[in-house]
Amino acid sequence: MTGSAVLRGRFRLASAGVVAAIAVINVGNHLLGLPWWVHPIEGGALLGWARLDGLSWAQLGLGRDRLGAGLRWGFGVIGVVAAVYLIGVLLPFARPAFQDARYHLPLPEVLKTAFVIIPLGTIVLEELAFRSVLWGCLSRHARPWQVLVTTSVLFGLWHLLPALSNGSSNRGLSDTVGSGGAGVAVATVAITTVGGLVFGELRRRSGSVLASACAHWAFNALGVLFGLLAWHLAAPAG
After folding, report:
1. Listed residue (75, 115, 76, 78) closest to 228, CA to CA
2. 3-state SS, residue 100
3. Which of 104, 135, 156, 211 has its Cα between 20 and 30 A from that of 21?
4. What is the CA radius of gyration of the chain?
5. What is the pTM assigned to this prediction?
6. How far apart are the C-alpha atoms of 211 and 21, rounded to whole Å?
7. Contact, 164 vs 185, CB < 8 A?
8. Beta bridge mates, 170
9. Beta carbons of 196 and 156 less than 8 angstroms apart
10. Do residues 64 and 144 touch, judged by C-beta distance below 8 A?
């Protein structure tokens, strides 16, 4: 066996280890109901392991030289998503898609969710796990399209357990696929897999996880903010 084959085998083993670690984190978070502030610690642990395994900041999508590109792509996506969401909320037939019962909250709680809990409790862990650490590991032995597809499918599966738990909290989704947990779960996995493809392509084009993180924040947090408007517009007058 050649040295390159041995190295490739080690890289594959490292990737499998990351996938296993992500699965353990997902199941652990679901079963134990860990608070949101634990999640960035988990992401930091994955990042620390990747650095010890020899991945550079550039391979992890965190290189300084790609910071500007990541921000340009990210802010551009935020603007596009905000415009689309605004149109969607103003259209009565599309408004139910923004009415998620989990985020039918007072304004202070909505702001805390959008600007603290989602960025730190969701995006940091998921972006470091899928578009940074796993992406960097897979890139050492897989082709770019394989990296994109693999991280996106696993990102979709990551959302399976939460979808089964949350059920039909989103009015628009439950109206479309039914209120049964299985239908909502399948739809959620499919939607988040497509989202993973979008986020991954932004990461690939920009060379920075910042681009995918900004897009991730836009889809999630702006959904909460515009959801507040959707609930307000749907409320009976008087």
Report:
1. 115
2. strand
3. 211
4. 19
5. 0.91
6. 24
7. yes
8. 100
9. yes
10. no
- Degrees to nearest 5, angle at CA 96 with 93 and 101: 170
The domains of the chain are located at 3-234
Q: What is the per-residue DSSP string for 2-69?
A: -HHHHHHHHHHHHHHHHHHHHHHHHHHHHHHT--GGGHHHHHHHHHHHHHHTT--TTTTT--GGGHHH
Both structure tokens of 226: 């515009």
